[in-house]
Amino acid sequence: MKRITGLLVFSLILMGTQLVQAQKFGFVNSAALLTELPEVKAADSELNVLQNQLKKKGEEMVTAFQQKYAELATKEKNGEYSPKQLEMESQKLKDDEAKITQFEQESTQAMSKKREELLQPILDKVNKAINDVAKESGYAYVFDASTNVLLYADPSADVTALVKKKLGL
């Protein structure tokens, strides 16, 4: 009975080893793949336009603030403001400064939202292509070589070309 149990365990281990050896592994360099997609280039261009617009508006706000500050300093130096007027004008400058800070935060959020809005459909498309290639080619696992998690890969396991073909590149 022990002999039969031992043979059964040995057979299961041998079959398990054969199953692991039968699995196909592949890898793709998603970073390189994304740089070749025209949609990514268009998204980057649109993001640059938005960033430049926000930067220009922010610079205009800072320039206006600096002018008001210089004007206030000059009028204070010349004694044109009473202490009460000086306090009111200083408060206006603090309010302007707060608006600039708020604009910077909103700009950062707007850029993040726009980036996600533009890139998520592209990433979904690439992930679908990778999944399709993996299923069609019988790969059990496909790793991303651009994440530097992959320690070694046989070049014959690179499925980047298949994914490019699936994406029409």
How would you describe this protein?
There is one protein chain. The protein is mainly α and 169 residues long. The chain has a single domain, classed as Protein Binding, DinI Protein, Chain A. The protein is 78% helix and 7% strand. It contains 5 helices and 2 strands, in the order H-E-H-H-H-E-H. It has helices spanning 2-22, 30-36, 38-77, 83-137, 160-167, and strands at 24-28, 139-144. The chain has a two-stranded parallel sheet with strand order 1-2. Helix 4 (83-137) packs across helix 5 (160-167). It is rod-shaped and about 85 Å long. The two termini are 61 Å apart. Residues 5-12 and 14-20 have low confidence and may be disordered.
Short description:
This protein is mainly alpha-helical and 169 residues long.
SSE topology sketch:
Blueprint: H1 2-22, E1 24-28, H2 30-36, H3 38-77, H4 83-137, E2 139-144, H5 160-167
Parallel strand pairs: 1-2
CATH class identity: Alpha Beta
Q: Oligomer, anyone? A: single chain
**Topology-level CATH name:** Protein Binding, DinI Protein, Chain A
Q: How many helices in DSSP terms? A: 5
Strand pairing plus helix content: what structural class?
mainly alpha
Strand residue percentage: 5-15%
State the major sheet: 2 strands, parallel
Order of helices and strands: HEHHHEH
CATH superfamily, by name, is Skp domain
Widest sheet, order of strands? 1-2
Task: Kindly report the average pLDDT value.
Answer: 85
